Predict the 3D structure of the following.
Amino acid sequence: MGYWTFRLDDESQNICTVTYPWGTYKYTRLPMGCSVASDFFNAAMNDIFANQSSVEKFFDDIAVFTDGTYEEHLQEVSKCLATLQLKGFTVKPTKCTWCQKTVDYLGYTLQTDGIKPQTRKIDALLKMQPPKNRKQLRSFIGMVNYYKIMWPRRAHILKPLTDISGKLNFKWEAAQESAFQEIKALMSEDVLLRFPDITKPFHLYTDASDYQLGSTIIQDGKPIAFYSRKLTPTQQRYSTIDKELLSIVESLLEFKYLLAGTDITVHTDHKNLLSAHSRSDRVYRWKLAIQEFHPTYTYIQGEFNSTADTLSRLDRADDYNDLDIEATIEESFLFYPTVSDINFPLSFARIAQTQQGDEDLLQAIADDQNEPKHYYSQEIHNVDIVYYKPSSEAIPKIYLPEALRDDTIAWYHEFLSHPGITRLLATIKANFYCPQLSKSVENYVKSCHTCQTMKAAGRGYGELPPKEAEETPFDTVCIDLIGPWKLSIFEEQKTIELNALSIIDPVTGLTEFSRINSKEAEYIAIEFTLTWLQRYPKPRRVIHDNGSEFIGNAFQQMLQANGIHDVPTTIKNPMSNGICERSHQTIANHLRSIMADKQISTLAEAERLLDICLATAQYAIRATIHQTLRTTPGALVFHRDMLLPIPLHHNFETIRQRRQQLIDSNTERQNAKRISHDYQPNEEVLILNETDRISKLAPRASGPYQIIRVHTNGTLTIRRNNNLQRINIRRVRPYFRRSPL
């Protein structure tokens, strides 16, 4: 409610406007959903209490701390309340605590002798059930890490949980359950850290093992804070002295707010750290960072550095080196990770144990009294397994409990190199029966990140919008570059590249082709002026792709000077300028036929040959009957036959209707092959990679990227690498994230 104390000026109100079906409204007070509201509110609170050092504030959580008499405390409280009243704030007394020696503040319980976690917050953590997905797991880890300074061994205990927090294939196994229960047991222990006194010296005890850092801050023999974290794979390869030094650097930086400018003694059990010699730039940079704190170093034998040493060297339940080797092996296979017996979810013992705890199965067995029975038990490898047989003629299948369903689908999908929905479902159904198996398999395969990015696109998503046929000649022109064509010069023993400019009126089909010597925007602007603007009526629009020759300043300025509207197509979508692409195919075919038995000796000969080819193709297009126009482009423009002196007249409205029918027919045919999908803002999509420009083993799609806006012309605005990009729906497909049933 504190936000609403601040009035917005007229300019800010215009920005903070919301639209509803029944009208448009402006916020007159600072809204909670505004991105800058929190920064503004905190800055205002800091300014309000800038002269009252006894007040601590975090947004609207305000605390007054004093170490004097009761009367002095009341004076500070009165001063705080008077300041709030003066600034227009109100306080609800029933929500406040007054004159306490123990108070809950920002998740901690503050006492006169120290700080500890707030009891009700810890109780909430202890009552949490094991996470069922990555989101829940990350939420739990985040809550634990909020109290990271309170307990030693935190990073060590959390390691099995953090190891799977970033994996798409979420698997909760025995190691994770053990860590989950152990961290809850640790947090249930009563702990009290002393308040620091910056006038007294601090003692920092640090140590590092092969896989973890650890440190403890001590003052007057009492713990102030703990720090521990696991090393990254790269840091695990550091030398011993680098790890020890990293432990000191990170501990000092982690508690910089506490240790900067104080008397610090660093206790280490590594004598080499006391030398001034720096073996690498990395060590040199670390030592420079440490010098900011001006610490004093003291050597302590390892046996007396028990706290920090314990934080970094506790025995682990698993062998780290073995796990690292296994991860390396898995990364070396494409679509075929190594699956150990531990990961295999379908051992008979595990199936039987899970069946015995499946309440739905037990109830179904209890209700299955009529003959023939659908559920019966059979011994396999000395284990009693429940089978399901829907009818007397059906083949019995092992009943797969719901608790094993997701692990089974994940294992089959990974082990069998990511089969599709139909194949995966048929493979599992060959031996197992499980309720909702089809829906679960579809959900898993459809949301598999590897399948979505590595497999071919298949049918497109989203219907293409209707398109209106152009009806006015020379109102719109399409411009594009053709080439490059690579020609071998026999005498000079080299290969050259030739390019051309194509300009087409989509209504009449009239074309102009011109060989170009440069692809600079300035050159293209001049060529367009000479080739089209000085010969034909000035167009209202020019359609082009996003090449630098068209979006460059020189070409854009030429369009603006002539009052021509610029219409760029979406990126890497040649179909949006399809009329140019079709004419390019005609020219390429013509050039290939000419070059079939011809040997070029000089560059001038190559250029002359291309000029002849372009002129011939241009005349052929103008003089050939167009299937949609049912006449020639030249006849439409010049009102006579291109080969005979015969006058001709045409009805452009009839031609437009015929063209519109063809456009609608093509759109309908393409949409029949596409999957109906309504793209929405905030939805995620993958961008399809051009298969002719990537290797056979490269990903077929990249992403996911968030949709910002959906346009009516079949394009989307997406956020890609912090930039907004407009893209045609032909080049994307939806990205599906796994959702619980």
The longest helix spans residues 603-623. The chain has a mean pLDDT of 78. The first strand starts at residue 17 and ends at 20.
